[in-house]
Design goal:
By secondary structure, the protein is α+β, with helices and mostly antiparallel strands. The chain contains 9 helices and 23 strands. The N terminus is likely disordered.
Length: 414
């Protein structure tokens, strides 16, 4: 037992006592979808990888995710990452041996008359990148979605391939697949800091005084990443934004589950939640929701917030005025200045960060995990990550929408 830390870890079975390895080629810190995907892709490459999670797999931001998988992005970079991730979600069982509980629902979003030029520009961008997006008239959209109020829309976009998955099931699927390929998964492990010697990562310090020796660390710890990186001299331009969602029971007679819908004018996104409910949340990153600490003291949602979300959703789906509230939750987004992630090697040699996903991490996790695994294993930055370096903000290379819709808007989170 000498030199080995012991933890209580329920991953393979309740209360199983498992050893934490004292050495690894790569340590991934964070057991959400992003960290688990990275661990899986590293293990797939034959890398000796250990993933450590302070709670249980999927218990952080992943567990609060709306888990929408859509291709409706306003840059070629975003569309490309989500398209490749969507393909992976569709064959998740074949790739990992486990389910992600993916549901293909389709995606709808509309535009008002003043924004039609921007709408058409975005539609051209999407189709040029291979997205099966189609332009619908309001009448055509109502044939697909009879409950949708379209009187203020002059056109809508429909993406039939969009959908959602179960975020916790997805994270566990990635983690179990990594384990089956030789990776090590450990839960309930508190990481207190990183060990650096001579400008090189040398290990990970654990909360019980133990250590995992390694020359490579991937920080994929969500809101905790900023703090862990800062302790070794790396300052990341990340702030935290509180996000809130409500679960509403659809009224009797609503009909089939609705598609994913983005209402840019009502500031809501929504999707079906199972066969009877709808999940609805706010789209923007309003400054008054900024939180200073990396963890929320209160994760419940107030009655007034649920009422507000219900009212907003009912403007687009009028029958939802009769919806029965079923609860909700709050979580934190780790947000970057341009709402795109920082995926880079930073600070000491061997330190990599995956942070700043701004609410988009779940849907990007398959492709980002693959690219970051290639980066860590080879030491060479893949072309797909070339625009996502940490230095882009100080160098004036922030990612800007090629076809923003609406043309003047703030940050969008889901």
């Amino acid at each position: 037992m000498e030199g080995t830390t012991i933890c209580e870890n329920p991953f393979p079975g309740p209360m199983a006592r498992l050893r934490i390895p004292t050495r690894a080629e790569v340590v991934v810190v964070g057991g959400g979808c992003m960290g688990a995907s990275t661990a899986f892709h590293l293990a797939r490459r034959g890398v000796d990888v250990v993933l450590v999670e302070r709670g249980h797999i999927g218990s952080g931001a992943t567990g609060h995710s709306g888990a929408i998988i859509r291709q409706h992005y306003e840059t070629r970079l975003g569309i490309g990452l989500t398209r490749r991730s969507l393909l992976f979600f569709r064959r998740f069982k074949e790739e990992t041996g486990h389910s992600c509980d993916f549901h293909e629902t389709g995606f709808l979003s509309g535009t008002r008359a003043p924004d039609v030029p921007a709408f058409d520009a975005l539609l051209r961008l999407l189709t040029s990148e291979g997205v099966r997006a189609e332009r619908l008239s309001p009448d055509g959209a109502q044939q697909l979605e009879p409950q949708l109020a379209v009187s203020d829309y002059v056109a809508l976009v429909h993406d039939p391939e969009a959908g959602y998955a179960d975020p916790a099931v997805t994270a566990v699927g990635f983690a179990k697949a990594a384990e089956s390929l030789g990776g090590t998964i450990r839960q309930d492990v508190d990481v207190r800091g990183l060990v650096v010697r001579g400008g090189q990562i040398a290990g990970v310090r654990l909360g019980d005084g133990g250590q995992i020796k390694t020359s490579n660390v991937v920080l994929a710890a969500g809101t905790w990443t900023r703090m862990l990186a800062r302790a070794v001299g790396v300052r990341l331009p990340i702030h935290f934004v509180r996000g809130e969602v409500a679960i509403l029971r659809r009224p009797v007679g609503f009909g089939r589950p609705p598609r994913i819908h983005f209402d840019f004018y009502g500031n809501t996104y929504s999707r079906p939640e199972g066969e009877k409910d709808v999940l609805v949340g706010y789209m923007d990153a309003r400054p008054h929701r900024i939180v200073q600490q990396p963890v929320l003291r209160e994760q419940s949602v107030s009655t007034s917030t649920i009422r507000d979300l219900t009212r907003r959703l009912a403007r687009r789906f009028p029958s939802m005025t009769r919806a029965q509230p079923r609860g909700g939750w709050a979580g934190l987004y780790d947000v970057s200045p341009d709402s795109y992630p920082i995926l880079d090697a930073v600070g000491p040699r061997g330190l990599f960060v995956e942070v700043g996903f701004s609410g988009h991490g779940f849907k990007l996790s398959p492709e980002v995990g693959r690219l970051m695994a290639e980066f860590v294993a080879s030491g060479r930055r893949p072309e797909g990550l070339s625009e996502l370096g940490a230095g882009r903000f100080r160098e004036g290379r922030e990612i800007k929408p090629a076809a923003p819709l609406p043309p003047r808007r703030g940050s969008r989170l889901p």
